[in-house]
Amino acid sequence: MKQIYLFRGLTWPFRYFFSILKRKLGKLDLLRVEVFVVLGNSSHLFVKGRVIEAYKQSRPSDKHNTLHNILATLRRYAGSSVPDARVELRIAGLNKQLVTDEEGVFEGLYDLDEKTSESTKTVQFSLLADEGLKPEVPSITKEILRFQKNYPHGIISDIDDTIIVSKATNIQEKFWLSVSKNAYTRRPLPGVSEFYRLLSANAQYPVFYVSSSDWNLFDLIQDFLKYREIPVGPILLKDRHMDLKNIWKSGGGSHEHKVEKISFLMDFYPNLNFVLLGDSGQHDPEIYAEIISKYKHRIEAVYIRQVGTKDPIREEELNKLLPSNKIVWIKNSTEAIEHAKVYLVH
Fold first, then answer.
1. Tens-place pLDDT, residues 186-228
2. CATH number at residue 80
């Protein structure tokens, strides 16, 4: 998606000021609040979402042709985000206001008292209809995802070339796959569904997805997971693509955000150990090395799918960080399943 990232980066000032102008003139269409993540623990609530002009997007189908998928991609990226919009959050008597950033994204982390944290199951979001902002619906309610059981482990997984064939190391191939396919026609890596269901005890344990894809692809990734029967879980994607000097790097820019998001999950669920899943095609080994150095005793295993030519020096550096039986370089899901049955699944 690098070409799309470049386009969005170059056109951002125009889209931002055009959105502000439409708002001042009262020309914005109906607006939609899209909620991406609502996470809770014993003391905090974390939410993330965005406000965009409501657009109609047909449901994906394995019968849609290339042209239909290209048009759907353009429609997804052409949607106008709404900066400086106010969203009210309500949860058990707690009322908070969030303001969207330049890309229409809002985010909040709130302290909760013990009673609210344990008893409250949902949170309500409402767009405040000021300056001509017209919400598509008065409010939406989302379930709070909590993981407070004594799970043996949770899972944190990359997406591109870890669960879905993306050709991330080839710009042209990745771009074509991104625009010409949909959630039903994108291909998973063979055996991924079986492997993830094994690791998560058939989706009983929490699974998180962290990727350098941007939030415009949230619905595609979610639909893909459901359609391919891969355990669904919270999805944390890349927030902005403003740094033009990084856009042409592999994977659409800096991957430091993945370290930040994985660290957030480790800190948000301090009693949970994790299995990390990624591939060698981009920066996953280096990212996971940094995570291991910070949270060594909470990493149960690291699975890295080998993409392209083997790099012995890279493998050796990562192998130094954990015992050899916990760093697993795999060629396919069959090897991963065999290892997991011996070392992780009892």
1. 778 899 999 999 999 999 999 999 998 888 889 889 999 999 9
2. 2.60.40.10
